[in-house]
Design brief:
76% of the residues lie in helices and 3% in strands. With 151 residues, the chain is mainly α. The radius of gyration is 23 Å and the shape is flat.
Length: 151
Amino acid sequence: MTSSGIAERERLLSIGAAAEAAGVTERALRYYQELGLIDPAVTTGGSRRYAQSDLDRVARIRELQALLGFNLDEIAVVLANEDRTTAIREAYFDEETPDSRRVQLLAESLDLATQMRRTVEAKRAALDVFVRDLDERIDRIRSVMGAREAP
């Protein structure tokens, strides 16, 4: 094995080390792989090995869960769109890509961004309804508290 191959292998983490570094359980890493959200390297013996890109992906998954409240099915769509956007960007900036193809790539990128915006807007609308319901509950509780305090 070449020194660069050894260096690359040394950067790969076992599932336990990756889980600890990512702040998730080993079970979560296996589940993310099962869903196709991450794709760690697998040794000939069947052990999973995680690169920094896998840990970054897990961080993105957790961010989408915490920030937007997305479930894993929704996250799979987001990640697929982000992966495709990255591929579009690479193709767009490839000096061998003809201008006609660049126009197609821009149109596809716009479509992906528009779809994602609709998804986020739908999530935001649902959160707005939830906040309004909470505000109404708070107002009702305060009203009952105020009525009990009156002489």
